[in-house]
C-alpha cells in the first residue's frame, strides 16, 4: 500500500520537478519565465529531493510527505509574499504619481496669476508639502486612520485599532482614531507605505486654497494653515469616510447603501479643499482692482498660459495614481476600469467646458476653461471611478464641464468672490457632483463587502436610492465641517499672523516683500504691476 502511494507521489513530483527545472535557456519572449522555481529555489530543491527519493519504507514515505508539505508551504508563502509585494509596488507608484501632482498645482496656479507674484505662488505650492506632512505625521494620520483596522492588502497589520466612538440610537459612531501619533507603535512596512500614499492626498487638499487666495495671502498665515489642515481639519472628515468613521457606516447602521462612499477623494480631498478655498477667499477679500465700486468686474489675466496648460497635463498624468492607485492593490484588476473612467471623464469635461464657453457663454474657446474643464472631469470622476461603467463616466465628465463654467461665473459675478484659478468651481462644486454622481451611476459591479455591506455599490439609477441619500448626507456634512473649521482657522490665523498683505505690497507684488527676491530675475514691476518692465 505504502509503495503504491510512494510510487504515485514520486511520479507526480517528478513531473513537477521537470516542470520547475525544464527551462534553463534564455527566454526572449518571457513565456517560460515566472514558473514555480521563481517563487523560491528552496522549494524547488525540496521537490527535486522528494522526486528522487528511493526509501519506500513507512518512515521513508513519511519523510517524503513531510518534505512535500514543507515545499508546498514554502511555495504558498512565496506566492503570498509576491501578491503583497505587487500591492506594495502599485501603492508606492500611485503615491509617487500623486506627489508629482504638486508640480501640476504649482504650474497651474502660478500660470493663472500675475508675474509679480510668481515666487510667492510657487513658494506656497512648495512649502505646503512639508507643512502639511509635519501636521499629518504628528497627529493627522492617527486621527484619520488610527482606528482603521487591519490593512488586508498590505500584509494584514492590525495595530491601527483604536477608534474613539460614541453610542447613539443603538448604533456605534466612529469619531476619530487615536493610534499612531508621530507614527509611534505602528512601525510596520504596510503602515508606513500606507502613510506615504495617504499623505500626498492630504497635500492636495491643503494646496487648493492657495490658488483661490493667491496674490494677497501672507506667507506666514499660509504656512500655519498647512499645519492645521494636515494635522486636524482634513483628518477628522477623512476618518468619517475612509477611517471607519460614522459616515462610512450609514449603510451598516441605517441601510443607506454602503454608507458614504468616496473611492479616491471627490469629497474627502477636493470638495474639502474647495470649501476651504471658498471660505478663505471670501474672508480675505478680492484682489485690489478686481471689482469696481459699481460692481463691475475687471479681468485680471494670468501671466503664463503655457505654464498653466502644462500644469493641467501634469495633473492629468498624476491623477492615474490618484484614482487607480486607490485600489490599494496591484492585484485588484478593477484598476484598469478606474484608469479608463479617469481618462474618459477628464476628456469629456474639457470638451464640454470648451464648447459651452465657446458657443453658449462667449464667442471663442477659452484656454483657461479648457484647463479647468479637464480638471473638473478629473475631480468629478474621482469618487465614482471604480463603480461606474464607461458610459456613466462619459455622462459624469460632460456634466462636470458645464458645472465648472457656470459655477465660475456665479462665484465671480454673483457672489463677488475673487478666485484667481477657479478652485471653488473645479474642486468644490465638482467634488460635490462627484459623490452625487456615484449615488446615481454606480452600477453594482464592484464594491462587494465595502464598509461591511454585501453586494456591489448601486446608485439610484440602478435600484438603490439609499446610496444617493448617503452621498448627499456626506456632502452636506463636508460643507458644514469644512466651512465651520475654515472660518475658525482663518479667524485664528488673522489674529496670529494676519491673513492679508498691506495694499502697497499687493500693488507692487508679493515676491520681493514676502519672499526676498523677484520670481523673474532681471525684471521689475510698475506700481500697477500688471506687466513687467525691463530694468
UniProtKB/TrEMBL annotation:
It comes from the Bacteria. Belongs to the ammonia transporter channel (TC 1.A.11.2) family. Residues 1-22 form the signal peptide. It is found in: Cell membrane; Membrane. It comes from Dinghuibacter silviterrae. Gene3D superfamilies: Ammonium transporter AmtB like domains. It is a multi-pass membrane protein. GO terms for biological process: ammonium homeostasis. This is Ammonium transporter. Residues 89-520 form the Ammonium transporter AmtB-like domain. The keyword Transcription does not apply. InterPro entries: Ammonium/urea_transptr, Ammonium_transpt, NH4_transpt_AmtB-like_dom. GO terms for cellular component: plasma membrane. Keywords: Ammonia transport, Membrane, Signal, Transmembrane, Transmembrane helix, Transport.
Amino acid at each position: 500500500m505504502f509503495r503504491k502511494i510512494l510510487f504515485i507521489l514520486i511520479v507526480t513530483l517528478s513531473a513537477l520537478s521537470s516542470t520547475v527545472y525544464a527551462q534553463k535557456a534564455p527566454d526572449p519572449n518571457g513565456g517560460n519565465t515566472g514558473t514555480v522555481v521563481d517563487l523560491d529555489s528552496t522549494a524547488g530543491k525540496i521537490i527535486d529531493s522528494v522526486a528522487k527519493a528511493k526509501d519506500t519504507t513507512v518512515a521513508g514515505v513519511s519523510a517524503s510527505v513531510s518534505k512535500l508539505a514543507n515545499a508546498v508551504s514554502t511555495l504558498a508563502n512565496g506566492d503570498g509574499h509576491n501578491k503583497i509585494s505587487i500591492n506594495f509596488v502599485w501603492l508606492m507608484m500611485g503615491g509617487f504619481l500623486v506627489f508629482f501632482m504638486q508640480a501640476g498645482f504649482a504650474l497651474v496656479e502660478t500660470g493663472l496669476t500675475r508675474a509679480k507674484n510668481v515666487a510667492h505662488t510657487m513658494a506656497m505650492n512648495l512649502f505646503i508639502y512639508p507643512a502639511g506632512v509635519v501636521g499629518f505625521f504628528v497627529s493627522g494620520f492617527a486621527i484619520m486612520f488610527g482606528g482603521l483596522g487591519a490593512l488586508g492588502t498590505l500584509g494584514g497589520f492590525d495595530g491601527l485599532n483604536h477608534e474613539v466612538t460614541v453610542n447613539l440610537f443603538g448604533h456605534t459612531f466612529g469619531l476619530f482614531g487615536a493610534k499612531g501619533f508621530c507614527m509611534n507603535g505602528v512601525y510596520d512596512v504596510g503602515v508606513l507605505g500606507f502613510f506615504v500614499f495617504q499623505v500626498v492626498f492630504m497635500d492636495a487638499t491643503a494646496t487648493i486654497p492657495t490658488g483661490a487666495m493667491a496674490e494677497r495671502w501672507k506667507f506666514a498665515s499660509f504656512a500655519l494653515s498647512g499645519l492645521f489642515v494636515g494635522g486636524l481639519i482634513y483628518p477628522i472628515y477623512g476618518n468619517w469616510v475612509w477611517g471607519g468613521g460614522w459616515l462610512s457606516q450609514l449603510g451598516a447602521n441605517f441601510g443607506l447603501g454602503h454608507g458614504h462612499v468616496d473611492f479616491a477623494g471627490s469629497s474627502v480631498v477636493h470638495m474639502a479643499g474647495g470649501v476651504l478655498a471658498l471660505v478663505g477667499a471670501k474672508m480675505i477679500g478680492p484682489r485690489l482692482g478686481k471689482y469696481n465700486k459699481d460692481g463691475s468686474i475687471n479681468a485680471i489675466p494670468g501671466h503664463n498660459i503655457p505654464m498653466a496648460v502644462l500644469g493641467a497635463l501634469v495633473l492629468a498624468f498624476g491623477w492615474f495614481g490618484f484614482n487607480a492607485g486607490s485600489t490599494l492593490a496591484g492585484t485588484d484588476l478593477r484598476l484598469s476600469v478606474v484608469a479608463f473612467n479617469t481618462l474618459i471623464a477628464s476628456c469629456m469635461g474639457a470638451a464640454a467646458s470648451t464648447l459651452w464657453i465657446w458657443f453658449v457663454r462667449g464667442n471663442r474657446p477659452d484656454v483657461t476653461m479648457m484647463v479647468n474643464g479637464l480638471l473638473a472631469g478629473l475631480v468629478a470622476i474621482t469618487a465614482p471611478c471604480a463603480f461606474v461603467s464607461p458610459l456613466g463616466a462619459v455622462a459624469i465628465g460632460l456634466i462636470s464641464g458645464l458645472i465648472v463654467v457656470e459655477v465660475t461665473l456665479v462665484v465671480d459675478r454673483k457672489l463677488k468672490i475673487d478666485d484667481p484659478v477657479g478652485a471653488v468651481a473645479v474642486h468644490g462644486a465638482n467634488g460635490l457632483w462627484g459623490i452625487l454622481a456615484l449615488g446615481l451611476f454606480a452600477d453594482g459591479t464592484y464594491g462587494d463587502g465595502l464598509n461591511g455591506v454585501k453586494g456591489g455599490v448601486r446608485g439610484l439609477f440602478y435600484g438603490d436610492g439609499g446610496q444617493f441619500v448617503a452621498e448627499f448626507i456626506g456632502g452636506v456634512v463636508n460643507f458644514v465641517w469644512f466651512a465651520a473649521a475654515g472660518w475658525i482657522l482663518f479667524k485664528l490665523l488673522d489674529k496670529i499672523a494676519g491673513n492679508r498683505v498691506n495694499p502697497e505690497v499687493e500693488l507692487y507684488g508679493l515676491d520681493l516683500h514676502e519672499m526676498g527676491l523677484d520670481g523673474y530675475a532681471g525684471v521689475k514691476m510698475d506700481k500697477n504691476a500688471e506687466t513687467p518692465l525691463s530694468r
